[in-house]
Structures are given as structure tokens and as C-alpha cells.
Amino acid sequence: ENFAVPKYLTTMTFFTGFMMLSTTGTSLVLFPPKDIAGMLRNDTESINSTSTDYGHIVREFPAAVFNPTSPNDIASLILFSNNNSDEPFRVAARGQGHSVRGQGLAPDGVVINMTALSKGSRIVVSESPSLGSYADVGGEQLWIDVLHATLDHGLTPVSWTDYLYLSVGGTLSNAGISGQTFRFGPQISNVYELDVVTGKGDFITCSSTKKPKLFYAVLGGLGQFGIITRARIALQPAPNRAKWVRLLYSNFSAFSSDQELLISTSGKMERDGFDYVEGLLLMQQGPLDLSFYPVADQSRIASLVNQYGIVYTIEVVKYYDDSTKDTVDKVVEKLTKRLSFVPGFMFEQDVSYEEFLDRVRNEEKMLQSLGLWDIAHPWMNLFVPKSRISDFDSGVFKDILLKQKVPAALILIYPINRNKWNGRMSAVIPDEDVFYVVGLLHSSGFNEWQAFDEVNKKLLQFCHVAGIMVKQYLPHYETPEDWKIHFGSNWQSFQEMKTKSDPNKILSPGQRIFNS
Ligand code: FAD
């Protein structure tokens, strides 16, 4: 990764001003106000570490990195940008930099290192008669820290991501989805209130009743309208433990009908069903990760995968605590009895609630130790309407991936319910009551990601030709026309909100919606 750092960045020792390129290509030197000047850095390490992300595909250098100590500092920076009337500079909040296409970068602008805010008590658990239990959480906080702080009170958020080392502001700018989404909706459906510093530098508290337009625009708004500095998140009593089950299928339609049955929120299933429903593929061409399964069973699972080419796996969890520990096995047995997995291919682990939620951390540590974490990630995440999921299976999984032996690092597939999403939020989803999350989480060497990108393009092309109306999650588009199609009928209100909240279009330029 030998990218050249622009020379002027390495030569400045005292931070009195910083230099950036104007849109016309000339150099500008900006002198920030005294109260925030000391929070700006342009040393090589600061610049380098904020010039790429988890994807390691896009690299763009900011002119400076800002380390705020409070939301007021963020407002000052944004005002400074706007007051620089000839040429307001671009500003991107950086949560954990876990985007994969440069969405949190600020070419020639200023990256806000949100983690600088995390000192001090920025997670506070409270209760009110109208809301019940909730947590006020800084936008820079990691979900793992939210989990720990709330578990100390015997409480927990209800909706999660698979991986918890993501920032609250970063996931709320997208949606925040996982196996609990079918029941509780995404993380953005479980927020009562936000503090936001808009693109004009205004500090605004908003909710479904206070400045609701801004509130809903920011949820899933890809960082376009304001910087989230606090979120009030719904909590409920936390369970202690989890029965974590995987069921293997050789047949797609049996797999998807069972998944759809499991996420049905009508009647009993809503009350007594599983707490978490996801799914993943095991593919012949591998790499096969069988670490979940008992060693004694791994060879017969590998044989099943070899025999069918693809084995579809339903992953479900039933939480329990002391009051339900004697009945949980019976409940799991009852719920799985009517499912059509391959007989003898049901596997179970019994883990603590925290171990289950933090499960991806172990994979991260393992990949870190092998030097396989900081590599290129040409990921593609899609929402696929239920009515076409079987066509997607034959056209993408079987035809494109299996036949062409595309190495399948991790492919996730699970259905969720549209009625758990509020239509006023910015997040874009298909127009069907049930739709599937499909995550093609490819990993590749630094020079091979283009091959996976070709696969991504091919599958999008397949969907286009077949008329499968997919929507990208964590979207990445190259042209304004594509963004227009992505937002569909919401494009106009998205644009209007941008003009209102961030008229100079300075925020989150790495999304490339308003800055190509
Ligand atoms: P960043 O990448 O830093 O920022 C993302 C965008 O949000 C940028 O445009 C940025 O400018 C903006 N932003 C950041 N902070 C703020 C803020 N406070 N206010 C306003 N805008 C802000 N997603 C899921 O939904 N479910 C998963 O299970 C899941 N698993 C993942 C696992 C891994 C290993 C990785 C790498 C990602 C995963 N993601 C998942 C995707 C993740 O939710 C997004 O990439 C999210 O944006 C990452 O958060 P971040 O804090 O790193 O954000």
C-alpha cells in the first residue's frame, strides 16, 4: 500500500492553517478560528489513517483531520467551512471507517475523527414513564460499549448488527441490520431522539414529534444532512443466554419457505418464535468455514456440500434466562420440528447472550492473526424482493457463483419484514412486504478486488435484465442518475432536505451523491 502522500501535508509542523485544493485546482490556505485550530492535524499518520477504509479500494486524502472534544467543536468546524464563502470545504464524520467504498472519506476536506469524542461518560441509561428504559449514547460510541453499559443495568438494545465494533452514528446513517431486524426492525427503527449538527452548523434535537422531517431524513440518510452526536436508543430487559442453532438444507425452496415461516410475525410466532433469524451459504468452491460445527461432524457436512454444490444454512437463536432455562430446549424442539432441513443436520451451541452478540469479534481476531483482516473487501449488500428470491438463487448463486467457481468467503441471506421499517426514514428498501438481505462479503488481495467487482457488476446486470428490483444496502453508485433510480420516488424529498440542511453540500462527500 505505497500511496504517495501529497507533499505539502508532510512539511507543515505547526497548525496555524491548512492547505487544500479548490475545485478549480488552485491551492488555498485556510486559517481556522483559535478555539478549534488546536484540534486539527495534518501529520502524515493522521492523514494516512483517514484516507481509506475497511474496503481498501478507495484512497483519497483529506487536507486535515479534526479531533473534537464536544459537539460544539463540530458545530464550530462546520460554521468555519460555511463562512469560508468562496470555497466551503467538505467535511466527513468518520465513525470506525468500516465502509467499503470510501463513504467516510473527505478528499481535500476535513475528516472528523468521531472517536475523539468518546472520552467521558457518553452512554447514560435512564427510564421514563412514556418510553420505558432507554440509553442516551454519543454518535461516536461503539455498539459493543453500548452493550456493556446497558448490560450493567440488566438491559439491552433490541436490534443489532452482526459485528459490534461499528459506531452508532455510522450504522444509524445506514440502517443497522441483523437477525433481529425481522422482529424489531433495523437499528434506525429503535431510536427515540437524535442530536444533530446540521450542514449549516445548527445544533438540533429532533424526534418523531420535534423536527420530524430532519429526524427521519437523518435515519438512513448516509450522513448527508447532519452529524449525529447523540442518539436515544430503546432498551428492554436483557436475557442471559442463547441457544444458537444451525440447520442445513440442500434445497433452496425448502430453505426459503422455512425462513419465511420463521420470520412471520403473525400471532404465536411473534410471541414465541426465535429471537434471531439469519441464513448463510456453504459453497463447494469454498473457503468452507465449519468452525461452528462439532469436529466429529465436519466431514459429513463437507460431503453434503460436495454432493449438492450449495448447502443453505438457517441460523436461529432462542434467548433464555433463569426463568426459562428449564423450558428452552422444548421450545427449540417445537420450533424446529416442523422445518424441512436435511434430517440429522441440526447443530446447536449454548452460549452467553454477550458471546452470541459479539460472535464476529472472534473471527476478526483470527483473521487479524492471519493478516487477513486489513485486506480489500469488494462487498456487495442487496435487498431482494421475496417474489424473486428463487430467480436470484438460480441466476446468481447457482449460475454466476457456483458454475463460475467464484470463491465464496461469506454469503448471507435472510428475509425481513417491511412493516418494521418506517417509510419516512431515508433508508431505501424494496416495495414488498418481505424482502431478503443478501450480503456477498468477498475478501480479496489488494490487486484482485477488480475480479470480484466484475462479479458484482455481472449479478447487478443479471438482476436488471431479469427485472429483479433489488436495492443496494450500504449503497455505492457512480452517477447521479443511479442515485436517482436508487431513491426512486423519495429522490425529490432527499434533495430538498439536502438543500435545507446542508445547502453548501459539504457533508459526507465520499457517498458521491451530491459531489461526483
Ligand atoms: P463509517 O464508515 O465511519 O461512516 C459511514 C458513513 O456514515 C460515512 O458517510 C460517514 O461520513 C457517516 N457517518 C459516520 N458517523 C456519523 C455520524 N455520527 N453522523 C452522521 N454521519 C456519520 N452493517 C449492518 O447493518 N449490519 C451488519 O451486520 C454489519 N456488519 C458489518 C461487519 C463488518 C466487519 C463491517 C466492516 C461492516 C459491517 N456493517 C454492517 C456495515 C456498517 O454498518 C457500515 O459500514 C457503517 O457505516 C459502519 O460504521 P462506521 O462507524 O465504521 O461508519
UniProtKB/TrEMBL annotation:
Per its UniProt entry, which superkingdom is the organism in?
Eukaryota
Reaction(s) catalysed by this chain, per the record, are: N(6)-dimethylallyladenine + A + H2O = 3-methyl-2-butenal + adenine + AH2
Mark the transmembrane ranges: 10-31
Q: What biological-process terms (Gene Ontology) are attached? A: cytokinin metabolic process
What protein family does this chain belong to? Belongs to the oxygen-dependent FAD-linked oxidoreductase family.
Q: Which gene encodes it?
A: LOC110749268
EC numbers on record: 1.5.99.12
The record, for PANTHER family, names: CYTOKININ DEHYDROGENASE, GULONOLACTONE OXIDASE
Q: Name one Pfam family in it.
A: FAD_binding_4
Q: Where is the FAD-binding PCMH-type domain?
A: 58-238
Any one Gene Ontology MF annotation carried by this entry is: FAD binding
Q: Which UniProt keywords apply?
A: FAD, Flavoprotein, Membrane, Oxidoreductase, Transmembrane, Transmembrane helix
Cofactor(s) listed in the protein's UniProt record? FAD
The answer to keyword Aminoacyl-tRNA synthetase applying to this record is no
Q: Does the keyword RNA-binding apply?
A: no
Q: What is this protein called?
A: cytokinin dehydrogenase
